[in-house]
Amino acid sequence: MEKIRLDIIGMSYSQSQSGAYALILGERDGNRRLPIIIGGFEAQSIAIELEKIKTPRPLTHDLFKTFADTYHIEVTEVVINKFSEGVFYAKLVCTDGQKTAEVDSRTSDAIALALRFSCPVYTYESIMSAAGILIEEEAELLKQEDPAEDDFPEEFISYADTSPDDLKEMLQSAIENEEYEKASKIRDELNKRR
After folding, report:
1. Beta bridge partners of 74
2. Collapsing DSSP states into helix, strand and coil, what is residue 27?
3. SS3 of residue 153 by DSSP
4. Tens-place pLDDT, residues 35-77
5. Angle (CA) 102 107 110, round 5°
6. DSSP three-state, residue 93
7. Rounded-to-integer distance, Cα 187 and Cα 128, Å
8. Residues 141-174: tens digit of each pLDDT
9. Which DSSP helix (H) or strand (E) runs through 41?
10. Domains and CATH numbers, the chain
11. Could you tell me if residue 192 is left (phi over 0), alpha (psi between -120 and 50 degrees) or otherwise beta?
């Protein structure tokens, strides 16, 4: 199965889940995005490594890296290998130079470690098809949003009565406005209808 290379596009605070963040991964040779909801600790660890901030004491992911370096173990790649019921699963591909092993990991931890080991992150087409959000290259610059939708907090909005065509338009609008959490909810509603 051919792997798709991913890069970190950004991270934003989750407005509907307290203490959670949306980590946005994008395919390197395409225009799809993979929004993944992660916890605050993992978001902090990823942000610290992205910004190359030195902490006075090592974080858990730094400790793992130091431990692996001490015993000559390297993480060569991270693969997001499963998407089930809205949850992403990942594995670390590790080697000591003689033996290669795959270790199950939470996706957020795997990304934090991929940054520390400077290794690539991959996923499969089946996961991008199921959970990816397409970014239109020539999207309209201005779109009218449904004003009634803005009257309610995101967690109270139901998409069950919205037509598939309207959902697709709402999805594109959410992507253009970088509202990736909203986009992932709309994507999930569209996937339920398939």
Report:
1. 95
2. strand
3. coil
4. 999 998 999 999 999 988 888 899 999 999 999 999 999 999 9
5. 55
6. strand
7. 12
8. 334 334 344 433 444 355 666 778 878 888 888 7
9. helix 40-50
10. 3-131 (3.10.690.10), 136-192 (no CATH)
11. alpha
